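Why this split exists: single-chain examples teach little about how molecules sit against one another. For that reason, every record in the complexes split bundles all components of an assembly together and asks for one structure covering all of them. Below is a record exactly as it appears in the raw files.
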Amino acid sequence: GAGVSQTPSNKVTEKGKYVELRCDPISGHTALYWYRQSLGQGPEFLIYFQGTGAADDSGLPNDRFFAVRPEGSVSTLKIQRTERGDSAVYLCASKGQGDTGELFFGEGSRLTVL
Amino acid sequence: AQSVSQHNHHVILSEAASLELGCNYSYGGTVNLFWYVQYPGQHLQLLLKYFSGDPLVKGIKGFEAEFIKSKFSFNLRKPSVQWSDTAEYFCAVNADNYGQNFVFGPGTRLSVLP
């Protein structure tokens, strides 16, 4: 596609439920990042994929959070047993090879845990 | 670990005023530096970036930033702001261009009064 696509744009769930957030990066981009942005704060790094493998998952807050990218394109961020503190906008970004260094962001998925 | 600080949480200016937003980072090695902008209701997009060479870099919409290595700073400037510059501005640091973590600052909200 022309840009990074994220679905759903909004997700409201109840505490304890399981949630999946999807990211479709720019075609051909090998690097894919997940960030979390809480109100009034900057994006907080969660995980980065280079191809199919998670090159750096040091930002995942705990083992309730997991992300996959099985074919090196679309990625899914999975949150188990959601808590109210998980409420935030989850941002996905992709980056192509080469030295431009620019991250291309999607519009985000707003998660609200009641 | 890398960290990024932005001095101002919220800046309010009148149209035609000059703008300078501060950004400092903590990392002793080679860094790539970025400013991203988020207009109301839109996704994050790149404003400008510094990789090497001339420490004064120019970006879109008349913005520029100066990298001062001795001060670990990368301040954003614009000589004359417009109402359409109202947005949230984020400074970001990447210690290695080839896919490592991009660390974002907390952001500065700019409000330009017509």
